[in-house]
Amino acid sequence: MNKTGFYYDESCFWHIAGSYAGPLPIGGWVQPPSGSSHAESPETKRRLKNLMDRSGLTAKLIVSGAAPAQYEDLQRVHPESYLQRFKALSDENGGELGPNASIGNGSYEIACLSSGLVSQAVEDVVLGNIKNAYALCRPPGHHCLPDQAMGFCFLANIPIAIEKAKAKHNVGRVAVIDWDVHHGNGTQEIYLERDDVLSISIHQENCFPPGYSGAEDRGVGKGEGYNINIPLLAGSGHEAYVYAFEQIVLPALEAYKPDLIIVACGYDANAVDPLARMQAHSNTFRTMTSMLTNTAEQLCNGRLVMAHEGGYAESYVPFCGLATMEALSGHKTEVEDPLLEFINLQQPNADFVEFQKSKIDQLKQKVL
Ligand code: ZN
Predict the structure, then answer these.
(1) Residue 136 alpha carbon to ligand 1 centre in Å
(2) Which domains can be identified in the chain, with CATH numbers?
(3) What is the pLDDT averaged over residues 224-230?
(4) What is the Cα 31 distance to its own chain's centre?
(5) Which DSSP state fits 180?
(6) How far, in Å, is the centroid of ligand 1 from the Cα of 139?
(7) How many C-beta atoms surround the C-beta of residue 253 within 10 A?
(8) What is the arithmetic mean of pLDDT over 88-113?
(9) Distance 129 CA to ligand 1 centre (A)
């Protein structure tokens, strides 16, 4: 079996993420944006799907939607008080649910659907209906705490899917690799004291949440050693990501021996993203995906699920996403990344790369 599932729903593109110009709330001295408005607009996601369709890749995948996450599924991660507050604000035409987390009318139902897409992808992979899967979910989830929306995230999509799979299908050890450029603080908090979920976040140091590095957070109690953060210096590019994978991410997975690997798959480490300062390109995402498909093959019968997170460059996210989907599914399209050569020329110099590698080596001593 070599089938890749692709989960999406047009409704996810209809969530309204509030009145922001890039990361700044509109008002005071911040002018309304031109063009397509909020950074977390549907366009990055919709254009990825468009490119998949036009390139012929979608036709190679098992495409399906999903039912919205049920209340009992949400409750395994979020307290009822939070869910009710979210639902009430959504019913009342929306507003600020948390820091950098605005919603519109109906966002609650769309968030439940987004979460349902990830849960269905996980369930189908766990049951062996498909080999691996991609959920093009929106809104994203990795910043959401149990009782606090933040950073465009309102439900913890990946933990909700993991907890459902554990409850219904007795899934054992799960590893979450978060390569969104911002720290996966929600996933970290939810699993900080647990050893049955290994949480690894590779991100730009001090980016978001503001001033956050994460290098010291290794887990608490039973969870000690099962939370790994890999903060990279702003400006890091392809080589830093590959080296961090070779030196830390893959060895950590091999030691942990998960039954399932899930990626919090943001594309905002790309070189033209408006909300971060890294230099990754489509080949970075292709390479990381290939490394994980190979590792998943060795460790857990290929069971790998990717859940869409951030990525805010409308023109470029589709090429990073397509490269990821190609590596995941094993189908190469004729599309060439028109920015790849240019971003390759912008990679940091050898001195920078050596310094970043030495930082990764130091971190490796501490975490492995
Ligand atoms: Zn992000």
Answers:
(1) 15
(2) 4-367 (3.40.800.20)
(3) 98
(4) 29
(5) S
(6) 12
(7) 23
(8) 94
(9) 30
179: pLDDT strictly greater than 70? yes
Could you tell me the distance, in angstroms and rounded to a whole number, from the CA of residue 224 to the centre of ligand 1? 25
CA dihedral 265, 140, 232, 20 (to 10 degrees): 140
Residue 201 reports pLDDT greater than 80: yes
What is the residue type of 242? V
Instruction: Report whether pLDDT(168) > 90.
Output: yes
Token duo for residue 45: 């996601």
Is position 143 annotated as part of the catalytic site?
A: yes
Residue 16: pLDDT band (50, 70, 90) is confident
Size (the chain), residues: 368
* Dist. CA 280 → ligand 1 center (Å): 13
Q: Which of 42-46, 208-212, 225-229 has the lowest mean pLDDT?
A: 208-212
> Which listed residue (142, 143, 281, 308) is catalytic?
143
Instruction: Provide the residues around ligand 1 (an ion) whose CB is within 5 A.
Output: 180, 182, 266, 268, 310
Place of tokens 């605005």: 102
pTM value? 0.97
